[in-house]
Amino acid sequence: MTVALSTTPARADTIAPATPVAQGRPAGTGTTTSSSPAGQPAAPDATAPSSAPERITVTARLDRARSALQPSTGATVYNFSRTAIETVPGGDNAPLNGVLLQAPGVTQDSYGQIHVRGDHNEVQFRLDGVQLPEGLTVFGQTLMTRFADSLSMTTGALPSEYGFLQAAVIDITTKNGTTNAGGDASVYGGARDYFFPSLQYGGHHGKWDYFATGDFLHDRMAIENTTPSFNAVHDLSNQYHALGHLRYTADEDTRISLIAGVSNAEYQLPNNPGQQTQFQQPAYSGSALAQQLAGSVDSAGLDERQKEITDFGILSLQKEIGKFSLQTSAFVRYSSLRYSPDMLGDLVYNGIAQQAARSVFSSGSQSDVTWRINRRHTMRFGYQAFVERNVSKTDSLVYQQAGVDADGEPVYGDNPVSIHDGSGRTGWIWGLYAQDEWKPLRSLTVNYGLRLDGVDEYTHQKQLSPRLNLVWTPLRGTTLHVGYSRYFTPPPFEVVSGTSVSRLDGTSAAAPGTRNDTVKAESDHYFDAGITQQILPGWRASFDAYYKLAHNLIDEGQFGAPIILSGFNYRRGQVNGYEVSTSYDRGPLSLYGNMAWSRAIGKDITSAQFNFAPDDLAYIQQRWVHLDHDQRWTASAGGSYTFFHRTGHPTRLSATMVYGNGLRADSDIPNGAKLPQYVTFNLSLVQSFRDLFHVPFLKRTQLRLDVTNLFDRTYELRDGSGIGVGAPQYGLRRTILTGISQQF
């Protein structure tokens, strides 16, 4: 059965977030695996030991117990099964954000960013229920789609076990060697030098099982084009990724697992040809120095580069003891970002050539416990704690101010000077929670709890947050939910810089202002309500509405040439919207469609004010403005049909659509304009063969053809204006990619 996308408000009896609802089976049971053609069961492994069924049973039971540790009662969950992931154009080769764009309320942005329900980057990622600390990656994605056996996106009024980043929780159920035994080698590529070989292999021996995957990506489309042309200028990237999973099942109630990953990516930053030389200070444009440097470098020939590295590891112990279930984990993550400028070019166009480097090292622990008291009450409690070290260094080449002219405009010397700045800080964030899932009636579930969070980094704050969710099933196939959550969101450590603003005073890179109040934690009141209806077998529909009232709303922007996001606060913020979703899954046919409306506004910037022009600060202090990532209408849809689905050579045809009515841009007021709407269509054709070469150790062979932006629509994600927007970016033009994968 092919499942494109399934949605539901999680109930007390739902195994969330790892259960594809339309399939009704917990992920990890071995029924649907990455190695199976759509609609076909996995081929039996002739080399598998006789204990394989028992192993799979134990694996499935422990997977269900792990999922039950963190239910999403009352929240809204969108599930992607393994088959659904393979149906998205590109399949396992597709970036993770490309898969998530098929969920309601997810808006695409430049640099591969996504926004969920009007928030900027408040999305947390979990691997098998363990939250991964935030890192510094801007362009690349550390987590690979092919590592996921299934994944879910949980949003809405979250129960108290979810803290810190709460716009959405992306939980990836990883592949393992028991249910994904064997290997798969693939080569994928095509337009714009796209070359993407990959390898994965899993297996088990005794009480151990293992799974590993790695890939290399070379292309010329890693970052959005700054022009509407078919090919970007200076956009080469080379990326390496590796992820592994090792597990030891001591007995039917005890399991130890280790997950580790490495990502190393180098990027050329696309150039914008035909730009006029201008410095950060407007007075430069007519100065003698600007005239002297004019024509010394072409904006199409700049050589700016950025390198991003991420390494992480998670060690977990899962234990079942009578009425208690436990998972406790320790984790580490290191990430770094280094920007290398075009020394002369950045001086000519920006008035500063800055080598910038940031790194964050995070370590911590997470524990979750479930106590099944009786049929009506299930208690859950636990904690999360992160210790983080943030280091920031810059070496800036600038021109020193030598005086002022007759009009009072600054005059600069001809010889650049170098200014070094650096800072480091260690801090920590922590959270405790407790909640009770109570069933006063058979059709009614009440989940209530408390969460206490604190942050001691650049800011020192804490908050006690109540959570309440109700789920009511008045009729078979009808589920209503309503919830309230108090949220506390610490500012991500990696987007807060401790560098000194005053060091560049009196230079060609002087900031628009000097005020630099500390970025504070965001505090929200979040309300959510919705309904899910099973209309016919295989056909369901849902409606969800939400409202967020924020204090110290956190936003992020790019200020300066380095592509490093910096955080700031709006004193007040409001985000509200609604989502409509439907899906149909029957036999070889799957269809789904989503539509969302959202409004996100803010007022009065109260931190990192030096990044903004005084006139903009004065305007925003008294008036509401749209957030730069505010997009009113977002929609996605897709479908797939598998021909010959009962044979060993199925053919799957699938298509997806993404629509947006435009992000924000500046007019005569900040973020006062909207970019034009756009719609793109993608197409995928996959042909599978069960035993193409008639060789015993070669299993499924798969050929695929994917077309992105089928009708070659030219559309603009950003025009270079807006609060915290650094450059224009255009969506990818028509791209044709092909691939072959061989299972063994």
UniProtKB/TrEMBL annotation:
Where would one find coiled-coil regions in this protein? none
Recorded GO CC terms: cell outer membrane
Q: Which residues form the TonB-dependent receptor-like beta-barrel domain?
A: 271-710
Q: Which residues cross the membrane?
A: none
Name the keywords, alphabetized. Cell outer membrane, Membrane, Receptor, Signal, TonB box, Transmembrane, Transmembrane beta strand, Transport
- Please provide, alphabetically and separated by semicolons, the GO molecular function terms listed in this UniProt record: siderophore uptake transmembrane transporter activity
Task: Tell me if tRNA processing is a UniProt keyword of this record.
Answer: no
Which cellular compartments is it found in?
Cell outer membrane
**PROSITE patterns linked to this entry:** TONB_DEPENDENT_REC_3 (PS52016)
* Record-stated family: Belongs to the TonB-dependent receptor family.
Name of protein: TonB-dependent receptor
